[in-house]
Amino acid sequence: MKSEELNTSVFPTWCPGCGDYGIWAALKKALSKLDTPIENVVIVYGIGCSGNMASFVKVYGVHGLHGRAIPVAEGIKLANKKLKVIVVGGDGDLLGEGVAHLVAASRSNPDITVILHNNQIYGLTTGQSSPISLKGSKSKTYPMGTPDEPLNPVQLALTLGASQVMRGFAGDIEHLTTLISDAINHEGFSLVEVLQPCVTFNKINTYAWFRERIKKLEQPERSRLEALKKGVWTNQQIMIGEFFRESKPVLGYSYGVLERKNLLELKRKREMNKLFESFR
After folding, report:
1. Which GO terms describe its biological process (predicted)?
2. Residues 6+ apart with CB under 8 A from 278
């Protein structure tokens, strides 16, 4: 399959130059290389500019509530382990409204891939600070400068025990395609943070700003501690690539009846009358 075959009849509505275009291109390329039939791929989208991708990729998709894409994806995977399940969300969606779900998934290791669009801003609502906005950056919510220290999703996921943690850049589509492909094929929870500009509301973190600071990792680190060190953001250097990967038990794969069958394969007749009568 060619990546162009995954286009829909809807043309993207993102601002010209938005980093979402690069992520969209890399995701389609990664999907086109999968051994899994495309009908066995499901993408769950959050709310925000990244979530608008639901209209632009020709695969099965679910547009969830704000911040709730991860638990929806987990439910889909637990119901049918044959599916490749991917989450697409922004830094506001996944680290603001949905941060508790990211914490839980990093710990429990469901077999899903989370692609986190990081443009350091709430773009769809026209420019509010997100949990990852750089300290001092100005926005509609903080016109005098954001007072908070930003979250670091790579370090957060590593600390919580995520089995695969990556960071890519929307301006390097080939490298990002490789990362996303590896993440989808990894058995367990994968976080792929993607650095991207918001050309309309973030005038600091531009393509040029990132290119001046980005350096690629040659290979994953052997320990979480070393990966944590490499995951640090500084004004001089930002590492991208695969930080850490390990094999560990996957949520649902060794859990009671799910070890033997998919939930969809369980055919049980449920009698509800007694339950309904108990409420009369």
Report:
1. cellular respiration
2. none
